[in-house]
Specification:
107 residues, alpha+beta, five-stranded mixed sheet, globular
Length: 107
């Protein structure tokens, strides 16, 4: 298990223990983290699981492919250099303690 802290748009911090090998979107959804809508269920088809990845952990994840990059062009909240779709981020022990910021708007 790996601990992930979600920072909600109101500044609240919620830490969850997530199973390694699953996605950050799955961890958010299973732990009722508000703001992660995940309409497509993790198939990288909707961009409603957009998050901001803590920069010191950003390189621990594989680079966004062209499809994810295209999806990020249509996010409802500001796209930043550390924007990713949480369905594409696999949890590993290397990201223990990561903070994931949830945007104010997903749709």
């Amino acid at each position: 298990m790996t601990t992930i802290t979600f920072i909600l748009c109101d500044g609240e911090h919620r830490s969850v223990d997530a199973m390694d090998g699953t996605s950050i979107m799955d961890a958010a959804y299973k732990n009722d983290i508000p703001g992660i809508v995940a309409e497509c269920g993790g198939s990288c088809a909707c961009a409603t699981c957009h998050v901001y990845v803590e920069e010191r952990f950003f390189d621990q994840f594989s680079t966004a492919d062209q499809f994810e990059d295209d999806m990020l062009e249509g996010v409802a909240s500001e796209r930043r250099p550390n924007s990713r779709l949480s369905c594409q981020l696999t949890i590993t022990p290397d990201v223990e303690g990561i903070e994931i910021e949830v945007p104010a708007v997903q749709q």
